[in-house]
Design goal:
With about 375 residues, this protein is mostly beta strands. It folds into 3 domains: about 15-165, Sandwich (Immunoglobulin-like), CATH 2.60.40.3540; about 170-265, no CATH class; about 270-365, no CATH class. Helix content is about 0%, strand content about 40%. The chain has strands at about 5, 15-20, 25-30, 35-40, 45-50, 55-60, 75-80, 85-90, 95-105, 110-120, 125-130, 135, 180-185, 190-195, 215-220, 225-235, 245-250, 260-265, 285, 290-295, 320-325, 325-335, 345-350, 355-365. The protein has a 5-stranded antiparallel β-sheet with strand order 1-21-22-24-23, with no helix packed on it. The protein has a 5-stranded mixed β-sheet with strand order 2-17-18-16-15, with no helix packed on it. A hairpin with a 5-residue loop joins strand 15 (about 215-220) and strand 16. Residues about 10-20, about 65-70 and about 140-165 have low confidence and may be disordered.
Length: about 375
């Protein structure tokens, strides 16, 4: 190698973070199917799910100092013509299409009936939904378990998802059966998992919610709002080759530690427009270890070919920030096994610090 060229500021590994802000409000009107009714209902449990974000609400809430699930209160009755309407607030991390599951509970916390729906939710808004509670029906699954209850004295009755009653494992959707996948949630009290219906969307494809993604994967919202299916993994071979690695660890907002659950990187091509292999709205970038993955284009990624830069985060898609001599500039990405990547009077040069073996940069001769 005739020249030593240093790669400056290769981006760190991706971390998916679930965020929360101000509350939104849900107004639920619960009825039963035609010709049926439900009595002896002491509380409603509402499970909300949007991507990896989820929450669990109860109505009525447990009053401070309650030691039992059914302390006080009057049993509720509902039918096809006599609804029970109630409202609840939840964090703004739940936006877009939200899956809503409502369980009717008796005085012991046992489920007497269940119904579900979905709704489009915007930040800070109140949304009204109608849910038909089928007597005797049970939820398809629960991240915490049927009939769990909050600690005595809680003012907002949400069970603790860290109590050990985890329903499934996202890696391979273990514990969910056929045509179902294991979805991870960042809930108010911590992380939880639950089985949900699976779709046919392959990893990397655009999705609206978890039901669009194939078994073993889940719908994730990228920082720029693009939703894509991502496959869970425990080891690199589970990602199917083509350069995909078990790289990205999911992290819930406010937690100093990762969740322990990882997803595969998306095989893509970081050269040229850096769009091949990525969903619309995402581009392909090179990460440490020469791992390529699809990601949003950050606000600082405005550097063009030849522009000065401090790190690769200053360069647009298809470019890397390299130091050559006394100058640091954005230069096009190339592959050493494809000599035609670079235009005339340029060569695909090796990069060091760190050393890359597959990719290089097109620099003037």
């Amino acid at each position: 190698m005739a020249r030593i060229i240093t790669l400056t500021g290769l981006l760190g590994a991706l971390v998916l973070i679930a965020c929360s802000n101000d509350p939104s409000y849900l107004v639920v009107s619960a009825t039963t199917p035609v010709g049926s009714s439900l009595t002896g209902v002491m509380r409603f449990r509402v499970d909300l799910q949007s991507g990896i974000a989820g929450d669990r609400l109860y109505y009525p809430r447990l009053a401070s100092g309650d030691a039992g699930f059914a302390t006080g209160g009057t049993a509720l009755s509902l039918s096809e013509t006599v609804p029970v309407t109630f409202s609840a607030s939840f964090p703004d991390k739940l936006t877009g299409t939200v899956m809503i599951g409502v369980s009717a509970l008796d005085g012991t916390g046992a489920i007497r009936g269940y119904g579900s729906t979905q709704a489009k939710i915007s930040r800070g808004e109140a949304v009204r939904v109608g849910v038909v509670i089928v007597p005797g029906a049970l939820p398809p699954d629960s991240p915490i378990g049927d009939g769990g209850m909050a600690d005595a004295g809680a003012t907002d009755a949400r069970p603790n998802p860290d109590s050990g009653a985890i329903a499934c494992s996202p890696e391979g959707a273990k514990g969910c059966g056929a045509q179902a996948t294991c979805a991870f949630s960042c809930m108010a009290e911590g992380a939880a998992t639950q089985c949900t219906p699976a779709g046919t969307g392959v990893p990397g494809s655009v999705c609206e919610d978890d039901s669009d993604c194939a078994v073993g994967s889940q719908c994730f919202v990228e920082a720029c709002g693009v939703k894509v299916c991502r496959q869970y993994c425990a080891t690199n071979p589970e990602c199917g080759g083509n350069g995909a690695t078990c790289l990205t660890e999911i992290q819930c907002d406010g937690s100093p530690n990762g969740s322990g659950h990882r997803i595969c990187s998306q095989p893509c091509d970081p050269r040229g427009s850096a769009q091949t292999g990525c969903a619309a709205g995402l581009n392909c970038f090179v990460f440490p270890g020469e791992v390529v993955d699809c990601d949003c284009v950050g606000a600082k990624r405005t550097g063009m070919d030849g522009d000065t830069c401090q790190t690769s985060a200053n360069c647009g898609p298809g470019l890397l920030c390299i130091t050559m001599g006394a100058g640091t500039h954005c230069r096009p990405v190339c592959r050493h096994d494809t000599p035609t990547d670079c235009s005339a009077n340029r060569s695909c040069e090796n990069l060091t610090s760190p050393t890359l073996t597959t990719f290089g940069a097109c620099v003037p001769r």
